[in-house]
Amino acid sequence: MRKLAIIGASGYGKVVADIARRNGYKEIVFLDDDDSIHECGGYPVIGKSTESGMIDADVIIGIGNAGVRKQIQESIPDEKLVTLIHPDAVVAEDVVVGKGSVVMAGAVINPGVRIGKGCIINTCSSVDHDCEVGDYVHIAVGSHLCGTVSVGDGTWIGAGATVSNNVSICSACMIGAGAVVVKNIVEAGSYVGLPAKKIK
Ligand SMILES: CC(=O)SCCNC(=O)CCNC(=O)[C@H](O)C(C)(C)COP(=O)(O)OP(=O)(O)OC[C@H]1O[C@@H](n2cnc3c(N)ncnc32)[C@H](O)[C@@H]1OP(=O)(O)O
């Protein structure tokens, strides 16, 4: 199997490397702009984030910040980008997962779901039937989208948060850890608590 270059030698990047290894990548390298980092998860950092075009390798972004992830992903030709799904994630057959997205261990994605590009579907989260997840969304560890939820581009669903069925959340929102979203959110911002309310 081909080589994989992961941009971003971070904690998240380390998890991405583990998923890549389980998907059969034999050679994994990192690219990062921090000169002081030489390895990540036991894999070498061999250059800067802008150098993926010079390497004959598949590419994925290992950066948690949605804005940075988007900026870097959109500078890379689509044919170099891959999608990674942990072998212990449960993903229904008709689910569409966009380029550059990563689905982590224990995640469950049920039928009729569409996940955009550059998303993180993190450990033990669930995305239930017919959800529409935009681009560069992060469904953080242990959070749950009930059925027919829509999440706009760049939104972060915090760890352990729950979004009730048939609810829409617009782009550029931060849903706090443990929040419960029971009504549509139509204005960008940070929302916390039960029921989730805007804080700024
Ligand atoms: C593998 C991984 O690690 S994946 C990463 C998972 N991590 C997460 O999901 C983290 C999600 N982030 C949060 O929950 C954050 O607290 C945010 C984004 C909601 C708010 O962060 P900030 O904008 O920095 O807000 P700040 O910390 O200043 O808090 C503002 C107020 O909201 C409260 N608040 C913050 N987060 C929450 C929350 N999740 N639930 C309830 N109240 C909260 C604070 O106590 C504070 O209240 P106060 O003004 O009465 O003191």
Automatic annotation (TrEMBL):
Superkingdom of source: Bacteria
Endpoints of the signal sequence: none
Alphabetical list of Gene3D superfamilies matching this protein: 3.40.50.20, Hexapeptide repeat proteins
Keyword Transferase annotated: yes
Descriptive protein name: Acetyltransferase
Alphabetically ordered keywords of this record: Repeat, Transferase
Keyword Ribonucleoprotein: no
Domain annotation PglD N-terminal: ranges: 3-75
Classification via InterPro entries: AcTrfase_PglD-like, Hexapep, Hexapep_transf_CS, PglD_N, Trans_hexapeptide_repeat, Trimer_LpxA-like_sf
